[in-house]
Amino acid sequence: MRLLATMLVVSLSPPTQLSGGTYTLADDVTVTRVGYGAMQLAGPNVFGPPADVDAAIAVLREVIELGITHIDTSDFYGPHTTNQIIKQALHPYPDELHIVTKVGAFRDVKGGWPHARTPEQLRQAVHDNLIHLGLEALDVVNLRMGGFDSPTPGSIAEPFEALAQMQQEELITHLGISTVSEEQIAEAQSIAPIVCVQNFYNLAHRVDDGLIDSLAEQGIAYVPYFPLGGFTPLQSDTLESVASRLDTTPMSVALAWLLQRSPNILLIPGTSSVGHLRDNVAGAALVLPDDALAELNGIAG
């Protein structure tokens, strides 16, 4: 990544080996499959600053200490707050670190998430990310479409073309899309290559099973969000039962299942706690036995 000049120097230890290994998004971008989602570093409801900025900085520095090379963020987290903390904690960034951001929304005065998908809004969002992260170019930018957790039918050509134009201007290196359908992915690919898709998916919500396999064949990463979202009480009971039998947590089982589901799946669990971060990394390393996999695979029905 190209950095803006700064006087801050962060001393970081060599990375450790993480479960799942790495995944190559592009010739110049290889990331650990276990990443980190920075959304929770902002204040309550992802709005305003956190109560303890030093604690947020400690989490980010532990991310690097653990060997994680993929941080997922957005300038509409806070807004601006999360990216500013990332810069404060880690700039100048280690060469192996890749920051993936997203655009397509903004925060109103009430903390809402209105769409911001016009070419002008997207250009402003890209520049905001560049400024607050202290970068000259963004490694990967996801276009956030759809609703809260599912795609919305319709063309994504206009906003995606706007990002492709900024890629031509070398403000963005690689493109991705989020909360999209197979048809929208194909439409985006007709405009410019994509390196990742970020959708709602977990062991209870498996609408994208076929899509994940298709993307794997194309060498495109799939980045699921909400690893414990949308479970029914019965599904939660099954997950908790498996976790108890393996002497671990439901989150650990959910993350391990995702990591074993397909080699193109990248994890971005978020937390504002160093302890929870370490737990998530340890949980992803869990190897699920065949009987547990069979039980978990039956959750979706």
Could you give a quick summary of the protein structure above?
With 301 residues, this protein is of the alpha/beta class. The protein is built from ten helices and nine strands.
Describe the protein.
Helix content is 37%, strand content 15%. The termini are far apart. It has one domain (22-230, 261-271): NADP-dependent oxidoreductase domain (TIM Barrel), CATH 3.20.20.100. It is α/β, with parallel strands linked by helices and 301 residues long. Mean pLDDT is 94; it is low at 5-16.
List the helices and strands and how they pair.
Layout: E1 22-26, E2 29-32, E3 36-37, H1 53-65, E4 70-72, H2 81-90, E5 98-103, H3 119-133, E6 138-144, H4 157-168, E7 172-178, H5 182-189, E8 196-200, H6 209-218, E9 221-225, H7 233-245, H8 250-261, H9 274-284, H10 290-297
Parallel strand pairs: 3-4, 4-5, 5-6, 6-7, 7-8, 8-9
Antiparallel strand pairs: 1-2
| Helix and strand pattern | EEEHEHEHEHEHEHEHHHH
Q: CATH superfamily, please? A: NADP-dependent oxidoreductase domain
Overall pLDDT level: 94
Shape: globular
Number of helices: 10
Unreliable segments of 5+ consecutive residues? 5-16
β-strand percent reads 5-15%
How can the largest sheet be summarized? 7 strands, parallel
User: Helical residue percent?
Assistant: 25-40%
* CATH topology type: TIM Barrel
How many E strands? 9
Class derived from helix and strand content = alpha/beta
Distance between the termini: 43 Å
Q: Taking Cα atoms only, what radius of gyration do you get, to the nearest Å?
A: 18 Å
CATH structural class: Alpha Beta
**Count of discrete structural domains:** 1
